[in-house]
Specification:
Layout lengths: L1 H14 L15 H5 L29 E4 L6 E8 L4 H8 L11 H10 L4 E19 L3 E17 L1 H9 L7 E2 L4 E18 L9 E22 L2 E4 L5 E13 L26 E14 L3 E15 L4 E11 L5 H12 L1 E4 L3 E4 L3 E11 L9 E11 L11 E9 L6 E9 L3 E11 L3 E7 L3 H4 L6 E11 L1
Antiparallel strand pairs: 1-3, 1-21, 2-3, 2-21, 3-4, 4-6, 5-8, 6-7, 7-9, 7-10, 8-9, 9-12, 10-11, 11-14, 11-15, 12-13, 15-16, 16-17, 17-18, 18-19, 19-20, 20-21
């Protein structure tokens, strides 16, 4: 059992991430969208719309074909941090003084406890889109898209009770509730086919046209490890007796290429990394989107993405701990061993289990405030606003809504586009985005960060991020 946990603990730090080119309600996105604070539901275009709002595949009628590959730069996003601790906090609480450990005062302990009130999430993000393209043979026929995207993802929630225990010790008659603990981590790949069509004949009132689109995805899951439920707690009595309950259920599944072997497993697999490993689970996902074009180049959009689930069947296991905890003699090895066994629990083979996808609903609006040929204000200006809401807390997703605002400005066509925006989510807090776009008639290259505040206030920032993307268009 301890060996099995070792595999999961190795897997989580490496993939304790939500690696998302376009995924979930809070996941990382392409550099153009990230530079505008991830306001993409109405403003995404072409290949950038895949996974976000398939209706916008056809938003650029003048382009016949467009595609994104690893050249000239890949579509890749990276982000990491601890949502409750800034660099200042980490240096203060854990950095020490002149090479010596800091002795925390009671006020220090209380402040650190308050920071972790409700638990704290630890995450890091790295992601890449392997290939995507969109073909628009004719506006009346519609647009067709295809993409292969990898998402590794995960997040770990640290219970505030563990922080309290580390700071204050095992306080007598205090209940340490560990039910806030949560771990989810996976690596999945989407093969998506998309279609979008513009309907110009549906004009009504101010409405000029409607575009509708959908995507169907074959989802391959290569690895998963996550908790389903945790309701553990313990307390110490006046007689220094430790008692409580250890209750949790967790699941894992790995491709044969990982070479994972459980204690109960009689099979042995050699680990071998491949670009196309054998899937541990498969599923089907669906995206739907609508965009409504109004006069003066205003667009309102709605999309629902990643409807579906994954069924995991390879190297699957369930981890269960369900029992009472009791210890009244620390010197009694049998009691200690029994306590550890109950906390760790047992692993058992299962045929299969299912997880959802990072289902989310998105609302957005985009307004062209100025066009290059206008004399009211120099250059092209696009303003966008988004509301994203996840239906679960799987990697890249959050049931806490995310609100964002973004702006794109290009003074002259031969100058780079400037982008900025702000986004807020209760999990990740307030972030300031900034990006640059270098655009020609056949090639675009974009660079962005969703944590631009780190450049000005590095000590008070809690995360770092960077995104690159490019596309060819003809």
């Amino acid at each position: 059992m301890l060996k099995t946990i070792k595999y999961i603990l190795i897997f989580l730090p490496v993939f304790s991430t939500y690696v998302f080119a376009q995924y979930g309600s809070i996941g990382s996105v392409d550099a153009r969208s990230m530079g505008m604070g991830k306001t993409y539901t109405a403003s995404s275009v072409g290949v950038y719309a895949i996974g976000l709002n398939p209706a916008n595949l056809i938003s650029e009628d003048s382009i016949f074909i467009q595609f994104a590959t690893i050249l000239p730069v890949p579509t890749i996003s990276a982000k990491g941090g601890i949502d409750v601790l800034s660099l200042d906090d980490i240096n203060y609480f854990f950095g020490g003084i002149n090479g010596k450990s800091r002795v925390l005062s009671e006020d220090d302990k209380q402040r650190l406890n308050e920071l972790f009130s409700g638990g704290g999430y630890v995450s890091s993000n790295v992601g890449v889109q392997l290939l995507s393209f969109v073909v628009i043979p004719d506006k009346k026929i519609g647009a067709f898209g295809f993409a292969v995207s990898d998402f590794t993802g995960g997040k770990s929630r640290i219970p505030s009770a563990l922080v309290d225990l580390a700071l204050n010790g095992n306080t007598v008659n205090k209940v340490f509730d560990l039910s806030e603990a949560e771990v989810h981590s996976w690596w999945i790949r989407n093969y998506s086919l998309s279609y979008a069509r513009k309907f110009d004949g549906l004009k009504a009132g101010l409405l000029e046209s409607i575009t509708a689109g959908f995507s169907i995805k074959l989802v391959h899951g290569f690895a998963y490890a996550g908790t389903e439920s945790v309701s553990s707690y313990f307390t110490t009595s006046n007689q220094h007796e430790i008692s409580g309950e250890s209750n949790y259920v967790a699941f894992s599944s790995f491709s044969d290429n990982f070479g994972v072997k459980y204690e109960f497993d009689s099979l042995s697999h050699e680990s071998s990394f491949q670009l196309f490993p054998g899937p541990a689970g498969t599923g089907i996902g669906l995206d739907f989107g609508l965009s409504f074009l109004l006069p003066e180049l205003a667009t309102f959009s709605i999309a629902v993405t990643d409807i579906g689930s994954i069924t995991w069947k390879k190297n699957t296991a369930r981890f269960v701990s369900n029992g009472s905890l009791y210890l009244d003699d620390l010197s009694d090895k049998s009691q200690l061993d029994s306590l550890i066994d109950k906390i760790v629990g047992t692993a058992e083979p299962i045929q299969e289990f299912s997880t959802g996808l990072a289902t989310a609903i998105r609302f957005g609006a985009a307004f062209v405030l100025s066009k290059s040929e206008d004399n009211t204000f120099p250059g092209h200006i696009l303003f966008a606003v988004d509301y994203n809401q996840g239906f679960n807390n799987l990697p890249g997703n959050s049931t806490k809504p995310r609100i964002s605002f973004g702006l794109e400005w290009q003074y002259l066509k031969f100058l780079p586009m400037l982008r900025t925006g702000f986004e807020y989510n209760e999990v990740e807090g307030l972030n300031w985005a900034f990006g640059l776009g270098f655009v020609s008639s056949f090639l675009e290259v974009h660079l962005a960060t969703s944590s631009f505040q780190t450049a000005f206030f590095p000590a008070s920032s809690s995360n770092l991020s960077l995104s690159l993307s490019s596309r060819w268009k003809f």
